[in-house]
Amino acid sequence: MRSMNEFGNDLYTGKTSFPFVGRRKLWFLIASILVIGAALVPLFRPVEFSIEFTGGSQFTVNDVANPDQAAATAAVQSVVAGAHTKVTTIGDDAIRVQTDQMTDAETRAVTAALAEKFGVDADHVSSSFIGPSWGQDVTRQSLWGLAIFLALTFIILAVYFRTWKMSVAAIIGVVDVLVITIGIYALFGFEISPAAVIGFLTILAYSLYDTTVVFDKIRENTHEDGEQSGRTFGESVNLAVNQTLIRSINTTVVAALPTGAILFIGALWLGAQTLTDISLSIFVGTIVAAYSTLFVAAPLYSLLRENEPGVKARDARVLATRERAAVEA
Questions:
Q1: Whole-angstrom distance, CA of residue 163 vs CA of residue 216
Q2: pLDDT single digits (tens) 134-177
Q3: Is the sign of the CA dihedral 106, 108, 112, 117 positive or negative?
Q4: How would you label 35-57 residue by residue, b for 16+ Cβ within 10 Å and e otherwise?
Q5: Can you tell me the distance from the alpha carbon of 282 to that of 181, in angstroms, rounded to the nearest whole number?
Q6: Residue 273 carries which DSSP code?
Q7: For the chain, first and last CA: distance in Å?
Q8: Phi, psi dihedral angles at 48 (to 5 degrees)
Q9: Cβ-based neighbours of 186, under 8 Å, separated by 6 or more
Q10: CA–centroid distance for 190 within its chain
Q11: What is the DSSP string of 115-183?
């Protein structure tokens, strides 16, 4: 059995090769199914947004002996029948309750009900209100942040790689990551909060970093080697992806391990719910970003370039030379 070093060396030299470009129709089909499926998920299971986006009332009960979530829901609904509640345990002795928007009188009554239910003084129950206008501001700023990120990404990549087609391939890969990650959030009922949005922007930056490293190797193979390499443009792109495959896998594992530890040990096991949003988005997005770079962005760039007259002529000369060598042999 080959060691990882031998496997990596075989990938770099081309002795072992995965058909990222050669089977791109299959990868594009799978990517299309994933994106369409992720886009359709909210139609059947709407995306849940946190109180920062939707607005509402929030109550935090401290010094709780038994942070029973069902008891918190019952206390709220004893005051406002049928009220929508989201209850989260914070550490070992605190509980947070988020509800629909309430009047001042309802807020005071719910505060008293929560204090009585958990056997604490009323001053151990804090309440806050987030208006819908503030939630709209958060939404607008998040969308502006995403738009600015994508625009700067397109411009910087076009300048760095001296071709807009790499920018297009990279942006489509980044959007692919974003859509699939949000679809996973909706599918499993996870809530999108400002922390999750920060996580989304973080994994978009990670996806961009991973794509840039692969594209840099693609540029090296397709520009510096020239026709003497004996490879077509698509073959050079495929070799570059294989040459950076081990690095992509290692980077993904290194990035996923700490965020996975925060998510599964800190948030789900120890109950540190405040870490869930950002760690979940980074964990899911890191894995999706690696897939998108290898199976979407790089093969798409090859497709965008292969029909250029210069590239087609070069590929034709390479293939003709290869055929003559085969005949002579």
A1: 12
A2: 667 777 787 787 788 788 888 888 888 778 888 889 889 888 98
A3: positive
A4: beebeebeeeeebbbbbbbbbbb
A5: 9
A6: G
A7: 34
A8: -90, 125
A9: 38, 41, 42, 45, 46, 47, 48
A10: 13
A11: HHHHT--GGGEEEEEE-HHHHHHHHHHHHHHHHHHHHHHHHHHHHHHS-HHHHHHHHHHHHHHHHHHHH
Amino acid identity for residue 252 in this structure: T
Cα separation of 252 and 45, whole Å? 29
Q: How far apart are CA 171 and CA 33, in angstroms?
A: 18
Pairing label, strands 94-99, 56-62: antiparallel
Give 245's Cβ-side CA count (13 Å radius): 24
pLDDT digits 0-9 by tens, 11-47: 767 677 788 988 999 999 999 999 999 989 888 888 8
Both tokens assigned to 189: 């009922």
The amino acid occupying position 175 is V
| C-alpha span between 67 and 72 (Å, rounded) | 8
Closest CA to 293 of 17, 32, 31, 13: 31
Residue 262, both tokens = 């925060």
